[in-house]
Amino acid sequence: MFRQLLGRLGIFLLSLVAASFAIFVITQALPGDVAAVILGHGATPEQLAAKRAELGTDRPFLVQYLEWVTAMLGGDFGRSWFSHLPVTTLMAPRLGVTGSLVSGGLLLAVLIALPLGAVAALRRRQWPGLLTSATAQVGMAIPAFWAGIILVFVFGVLLRWLPPNGYVPLGRDPGRWASHLVLPVVTLGVIQAAVLVRYVRSAFLEVLAEDYYRTARSIGWTKWRALSRHGIRNASLSLVTVLGLQLASVIVGAIVIERVFVLPGLGSLLLDAVATNDLVVVRGITMVLVFAVLLINAAVDISYVLIDPRLRAREAS
Amino acid sequence: MSAPASNGLLQVRDLTVAFGRHAPVVRGLDLDVAPGQRLGIIGESGSGKTVTALAIMGLLPDNARVTGSIRLDGQELVGLSDRQLSRVRGDTMSMIFQEPMTALDPTMTAGRQVAEAFRLHRDRDAGRARSAVLEMLGAVGFDDPARIADSYPHQLSGGQRQRVVTAMALVNRPELVICDEPTTALDVTVQATVLRVLDEVLDAVGAGCLFISHDLAVVSQLCSDVVVMLDGEAVERGTADRVFNEPQHPYAAGLVATARLDLLEPGTRLPTVADHVRGAR
Amino acid sequence: MKRAELWVGLALVTAVVAMALVSFVWTPFDATAVGSGPRLQSPGLPHVLGTDHMGIDIFSRILVGARSALYVGIIAVGIAALVGVPLGILAAWLPRWGAEAMMRATDVAYAFPALLLAILLAAVFGASTETAMVAIGIATIPAFIRVTRAGALSVLASDYVLAARAAGTPAPAIAVRHVLPNVAHLIGVQASVSFAMAILAEAALSYLGLGTPPTVPSWGRMLGDAQTYLFGHPTQALWPGLAIAAAVLGFNLVGDGLRDFLDPKLREVA
Which of A186, B31, C46, C236 fits a 20 to 30 Å CA distance from A252? Predict the structure, then answer.
């Protein structure tokens, strides 16, 4: 068991190294001379050399990479080229916004997709199942930002039930915090649920074909209760995998949704940094987002061991 | 064919099962099982015997169309909802399936799965369920029921799993147990053990049994009466002795011939069912 | 039912392709000339879907926008397939550890969805259609590697490949003659589904201002503009969204329909 966990941890660390290296290559090596990018066209050779020394770009690439990584391990993500503030200072207040948007959206998506996926699987020949599958198919085709715009129009402009955009920190007013997050979370959750329903449906369909499902019904469970009692446990293996893989697309979805609802999250910060060519900030945020995705997927792999006794046993021996 | 008894445990009349728009796979089948009686159904794969079993249990897929009548203790089962049927399933009737390797939920201990059956119909109390489970596991021949109860399916052998499934089916002392080729997937040596255990427990519980097999020898060990099915219809029925010794229908005769290889003269060609059926169809 | 899915999908895809083709030879009004009509007209005549904030006919822009969507889709899926398919076949051939390393690498790549990669590249190279489609293409490579490898593994295990190997057929010949034709349908399905995702990604990027430049009509950017005028002119936000949804739905349905059409092992379960 211990060796297996260590192995998974090793893979996680290797992935992290690979991802961070890719990010660094793209943001540091590909643009060419970063100093020239920052200073613009009119810079003198002396100014450029000074800037390179300041940024450390006059040293070998690998040294730069290692310095970047070491600094990050110490919690230093560098300073913005634009505002000269530490990247961590810029990110800190925004983590909560993106965090609540992503976790809220994911939670809502699961809460919608589990029952609908069950209906789509158990009633797949009758109209409730066909309707669910068809709705999911259409939902998958709707761009999240369009859904957001429509929700803003209906609930923010037409009915005026909810604020159309903006954000209020939780600490200042929990009620208004929540009301500002409802539309973004619903947009993200509903669109993500459309994707999830299909996975839940096929995971449940697999369970329905299993002999143990039939055994469970033969001892007196109804179809629905046999599925909830024996189906969710067994389907959870593949569902957890899917959720891990979906996390990346939920995070990306959140970036766009933050723009739709003008939320001050990591996504808006990232897009602002792109607009000002602030590669240090872009690099820092990308690293944080990718770290979150890789971490959750490592956690998913480890959670298999907790769900499936067969794996547990294999590792015990 | 003898007139079926009217006060039986299980009474199947004119059972017809079809899937979607295809031709029926079971056609106009009549079956009768008296309390405590053991009826064998033999036939090759595709003859409709498993579909018959699933129809009685109400476990056929949604696209199956079932007509006719299935009465258990006088209660009509055809047309009941899944919820109504679920009260009967596992209680007055239960089923033992063919594939012991996959019939149990891999994520739950064997004991918990047997206990589910008990708690669903008898007593929700976990402690009393546990003692009923251990007693039943002992009855199906386990010397160490507690260890088996705490094992996950993957930790048990095929024969052990099949006995766990047997315990699940019998823990509520049902009146009718449907066995669908319960030993086919097992080694020959294990088969004998499982059959002996099944024989003993059915006796102990006093349950009637519908025993489905393609193997005439197995059926004749366990059953008093036999129905031979071919292409969805019953082609012969009678006591096991009679069908075994004086088969009437050519197909039944073929089955008997292939099962009685001990009677063959050395040097003659092995008989096949086709030898007997050719010309009869 | 499944056949109906395929037909609806094909109809939608054909409609989008037709829109793009028609826009080359005819649009009701000039789709790019600013101020060629009255601003912010509601749907009616002669502007069937109205005009936008620059006075450009929305219907004309929707027609031309189909070009941007298809253009990005074709290039992105092309990049992904050209790189992903050979790598997938290679991965099927590699020894266990090699294949394992390659699959782990695609796992890491999954942490960089198309949109994130596109944002990263846009930050470095500046936002453009080319950056967007290259980013989407690169991000789609892992999907093609996986699908191709899975299909190639089963082909390589088949008797006819064994026979070809025994006869001394060189590996590249086996790949081209046996593996490729037998995984072509899987690649086709993946291409269709990836096309849908590429259109969605392009729309999102253009909405964020990181894709197609403002001068070229694109559905995503139209939605971004429409959001500004949502209060007084909500129908503007309707048409481009419908166009995106129809195109994405079309390619998704074609993908699903093809999959079921080519793989008729429909399982019967309770």
Answer: C236
The total number of structural domains that make up chain C: 1
**pLDDT number for residue C142:** 92
Tell me how crowded residue C214 is: count the other CB atoms within 10 A of its CB. Answer: 12
Cβ of B96: how many Cβ atoms within 10 Å?
29
Beta carbons of C124 and A26 less than 8 Å apart: yes
| B63 Cβ under 8 Å from any chain C Cβ | yes
| Mean pLDDT over each residue of chain C, to the nearest integer | 86
**Residue A317: per-residue pLDDT:** 37
Structure tokens at C176: 């081209």
Chain A: list its partners (3+ Cβ pairs within 8 Å). Answer: B, C
Tokens representing A141? Answer: 């085709």
Inside any domain, residue C25: no
Q: What is the CATH number of the domain that holds C161?
A: 1.10.3720.10
C220 domain-assigned: yes
- Asked casually if ipTM beats, i.e. exceeds, 0.90, the reply is no
Shortest CA distance from B59: residue in chain C:
C270
Q: Which domains does chain B have, with CATH numbers?
A: 10-246 (3.40.50.300)
Expressed as residue numbers, the domain containing C90 is 51-269
Using alpha carbons, select from A304, A190, A311, A296 the residue that is nearest to residue A248: A296
Non-local CB neighbours of B110 within 8 Å, separated by 6+ positions: B104, B148, B149, B150, B151, B152, B153, B156, B161, B164
What confidence tens digit (pLDDT) does each residue in A202-219 have? 889 988 888 999 999 999
